[in-house]
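seq as requested:
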Amino acid sequence: MLSARCMSGTLPMRTTETTAETVWERHRLVIAHDPVRAAEQTAKRDATIKALEDQAAQWVGKLDGQDAGDARAGGHCPMVEHGPSSITCSKSAARSGSSRSISKSELFTYSVNRKARQLAELMDGKLLLVSNVAELKAQEIVERYKSLADIERGFRVLKSEIEIGPVHHRLPDRIRAHASLCFIALILHRVMRMRLRQSPIAVSPERALEHLRRIQHHEVYLGETLHRGVTTVNDEQRSLLASLGAPTPDGPEQLALL
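struct tokens:
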């Protein structure tokens, strides 16, 4: 049985994930540290706090202008909570996940809680796993957990993008057929995600399918003449098909009006 929390920290800079193990509450406590992920989390937090400090500095300027008699310096800011005698930046801090790093006061003052910030930085890039499995190595436990997360992501795709149900079947053959089709669709979705990640096009499988489903085959009668063909394939669709390694469905005729 595995349970986990994502945490972070600063260690000597490495380029690969490292693992360590200790005992906690008579269970194995496995710690994995990803330095790349840690650097990303630290940089994101620093940028958020910098943006909050810049906002606070603007608010200070407005209040100083009001005190000096400049009516134009006032105005309501939707990012700020206004009270009878206080203005705090708690809303924007809460939305950014940095509320613990920002200290609030009854007056319009602000400061960075450096202790909380340092604690958060110590936890950047870390994954803590508690396990009672004795036969697996620490790295194997981390890999198993990441595989579990990938499986859960697959179930979310089945229920959202692929829309596995509800479909009410009664006959066993139809139940197996429906489950098989959903499984094949999930495999195709994951192959698409893998190939799109390797391509220069930064787009998700959902977004790619949104563009590609616009390609349709039509049969149109103009008087007595039957025209068959696919709708015009634009450059973006061709680029997506090339990234996926799929041929462009050019028919005998491009129906440009469609």
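The longest strand covers residues 2-8.
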